[in-house]
Amino acid sequence: MRTVAIRGSVLVWILFVAVGAAPAWADLYSAEQAYKKSDFKSAFLQFKELAELGQPTAQYGLAVMYVRGEGTNQSYTYGHAWASLALAGGQKQAADLIAQIEPNLTPASLRISAEIQAQFSRDKLDARLMPHLLKGRDYADRDPVRPLKPFIPEYPAEAQRRGIQGEVYVEFIVPPDGHPRLPRILYAIPSGQFEDAVRESVLRSTYLPARINGQPVSTTVSTFYNFKIKNVNIQDYGDLASRVRATEAKAEAGDVSAQMTLGMMIAGLPQLNRTYDQAVPWFLKAAQAGVPYAQYQLGTGLMSGHGCQCDTTKGEVWLQKAAQADQADAQVTLAEYLLRDASNRDAVNGAMVWLERAAKNGNSAAKLRLSAIYAASPLPDLRNPSKAMTLSEKLEPEYRRDPSYWETRAAANAAGGDFEAAARMQSKALDVAKKLDWDLAKLQQRQSLYSSKQAWTGDLLSFD
User: Fold this and answer.
1) Which residues of the chain have pLDDT under 70?
2) Which domains does the chain have, with CATH numbers?
3) pTM for this structure?
4) Which residues are within 8 A (CB) of 350 and not within 5 positions of it... i.e. 6 or more apart?
5) Whole-angstrom distance, CA of residue 262 vs CA of residue 297
6) Cβ–Cβ under 8 Å, residues 211 and 142
7) Which helix (H) or strand (E) holds 181?
8) 222 — phi, psi (to 5°)?
9) 2 phi, psi to nearest 5 deg
10) Using omega within 30 degrees of 0 as the cis cutoff, is the peptide bond preceding 190 cis?
11) What pLDDT score was predicted for residue 344?
12) Which burial class, exposed, middle or buried, applies to 107 when counting CB atoms under 10 A from its CB (0-12, 13-18, 19+)?
């Protein structure tokens, strides 16, 4: 993580997360609250969904509701099955429930219970959902990205004047040339203060790219920025180890917020000397509790083989769950995955649905991706330069330092027949790209086309 201080402009690779700072937005929390309010129908549905993901507390809650007939027909058989699964998952109080109801079950009922348990056993969950962790490694197939020349952003003047501090978590692509692309703000606290400074920092930093068999490859990276109004030195974090221990104790006790926070600490604190595979189990626990952001993290890890063996089928399942809960980053990631097969019209249509849904909810990354598709899609019926211009013009305050934004505007103008405007926008993209030290070859090729009154089609946001 990067920490930015006003005085001295110190930048430290460190993550500072207050214990308990992560919000408890888990579906498990919602299910428990619904139960307390006697909204049994809602509680039952939520407990059932999470129980089928292997969440022990939800399995026990579901068992209790079956035994009591709350929100569903009473069934000691189903209650026994889910209580047994909860016990196997470490929910010790389920043993008392099993002891109460098991004497009332016939041999046929016990067989049905066993069949349900087999359906949702650890082995079945492993095959369908669970990541297979790497051992002490970030990736199985590549050397990870390393920072080379991090750019120190200025502390935003308005935030400084008002004494505002905060944190930003950002995700971006590091392509083979080591110059980051498409910074995507995953969250910012408080919103609207530090995002622009972080985007500038990402775009102006350089990295050693990930490598497979010595060859550089594109890889998605995420990091924290912490903005503090004081000189920053390592003594400011003297209690960091105790904070991690306290968070870990809460996480092990079943606190979903702490589980999510701990995963982020392990992923973002280099001084802990832990690899990403140790963060994955905590993201998994929070994902099983229904936290959409954790489901997104787990899904992207499975898709890319980050901390676990690459398994796109499982990754899609978790990303779908997060996306269906309107986690916009999961929606964009699913869309990007589907767009890899540009010849598959069904996949492209599915990507457009997710992008439109994320854009409707205000996600800027979705809007930029949609703009690029409308501007330059190889599929003629998807090109809509007017839509591309409308979407992209609202993104300028956020993306003005990103050449991809100006390239999208240029391609949209060219698709609409305004080649003079296209050449002008492409010149702007080239100017910005030069300042970032990007490879200019592809940008110059597009500029030549626009200058000769020809449009360009393809994926503007592909950097391999």
Assistant:
1) 1-26, 230-239, 268, 270-271
2) 2-18+134-313 (3.30.2420.10), 54-128 (no CATH), 326-451 (1.25.40.10)
3) 0.84
4) 334, 335, 338
5) 13
6) yes
7) strand 181-189
8) -135, 150
9) -105, 130
10) yes
11) 82
12) exposed
